[in-house]
């Protein structure tokens, strides 16, 4: 009987130890993670203090970097911006479908767009945050990034300082150009003409949200749904404001600026066109918007 009891006791002790270890592991995991609600409404567990972030979606990489996050992989698209490309020295660049390259960096958190076709593959590598770009204005976007890396206080200080700066800028600009002056943004891509609203880069966040400047009514209606829209060149006059921000890549003159229609716009005739470098104006992170704030203020006050 004793021979039978001793193995049973040993088995019970082993099972108890296994149970305690599982409980301990579960507790450790719970202490090391936090719940995060995706734009889809689904909740996932992410590291409380992520140490190796892969920002496959380029929009969010500089905002995370600004908050002091450690990035081990970023989209190679960041190199197109003269403002932020130097912020990622030594960080691995990845393309849209470089899933294996991302995996080699052993990230503990991955950030992608909701339109990324490799989401399921990334989810097998590490917890993956899926952002719907359309759901976040630039300040909300930075709040979310701060929430992810536990830097809410730092973000609040930055936002407070940003609002104070741009409030003063707005007063100075409106005093110079008029509080009811309208501003349009035009950009050429693949020989097509586009215009942008308040949250698609190209200066919209700064002009319309931070400075509180107005869009022409028709332009506001046109960009209301998608945030951007293609404009037929013959309709250019319908969307041109009192001031125009025209983006350029390099020194090449956009084709729409060579037309008689363009040359006869009131803003063009009155020298109220501001030319900006397109690649420096694509993003809406703290580095980029501060660059645009200074650049746009200087150029608007010169007109």
TrEMBL record:
<comment type="similarity">
    <text>Belongs to the bacterial solute-binding protein 8 family.</text>
</comment>
<dbReference type="InterPro" id="IPR002491">
    <property type="entry name" value="ABC_transptr_periplasmic_BD"/>
</dbReference>
<dbReference type="Pfam" id="PF01497">
    <property type="entry name" value="Peripla_BP_2"/>
</dbReference>
<dbReference type="GO" id="GO:0030288">
    <property type="term" value="C:outer membrane-bounded periplasmic space"/>
</dbReference>
<feature type="domain" description="Fe/B12 periplasmic-binding">
    <location>
        <begin position="52"/>
        <end position="303"/>
    </location>
</feature>
<feature type="signal peptide">
    <location>
        <begin position="1"/>
        <end position="19"/>
    </location>
</feature>
<dbReference type="InterPro" id="IPR051313">
    <property type="entry name" value="Bact_iron-sidero_bind"/>
</dbReference>
<keyword id="KW-0813">Transport</keyword>
<keyword id="KW-0732">Signal</keyword>
<dbReference type="GO" id="GO:1901678">
    <property type="term" value="P:iron coordination entity transport"/>
</dbReference>
<protein>
    <submittedName>
        <fullName>ABC transporter substrate-binding protein</fullName>
    </submittedName>
</protein>
